[in-house]
Write a structure and sequence with these properties.
Length: about 200
Amino acid sequence: MLATLAGCSSPPRLPATGPHPDTAPAAADNELRVLVFRAGAAARMGHNHVLRAADLRVDWPAAGPVLRFRLAALAVDPPELRARLGAAFASPVDDEARAGTRANLLKALDAAAHPEVVVRTLQQVGEGPRRAVEAEITLHGVSRRQWFVVAVDGRRARGEVVVRQSDFDVQPFAVLGGLLAVQDALVVQFELLQP
């Protein structure tokens, strides 16, 4: 749901406020990841990114889960997560590149004005292990409805959805006239455990 990333230039470092989200452990029961893919004629010079909602909070009202996380707490390219994602994420990303990506992300999403992302379940269709879910996603001060498929196994739910940055008035990151850029479409993956 986020990104405008791939800009791996080296802006000033952000002040530390507790554990660094790039090394903070994910919640054991709930996880939300965003996969961001490189684009442009010089894409091979960049790399794909993965973001993890390090402070993901999940409430469980009757309509279905409500997910919230702060943009400033996103873990950018955690090495152990990149390793799990395979060859497309195999290139190493150093601390300087992660800091550049984080700064570009927070600037593009105007995180100071819109610090939180909220995903609110509106309705669920179906029963058993496969369900269609409609949710309202609020990002960058814009709310959009989105349908996706969720696999349910007991109290655990897994799913993924494709979200376009431009649908939330976010301009995908590009430099050198688009020679190096990120794709507009992001893949959001989540795993939730209902208490």
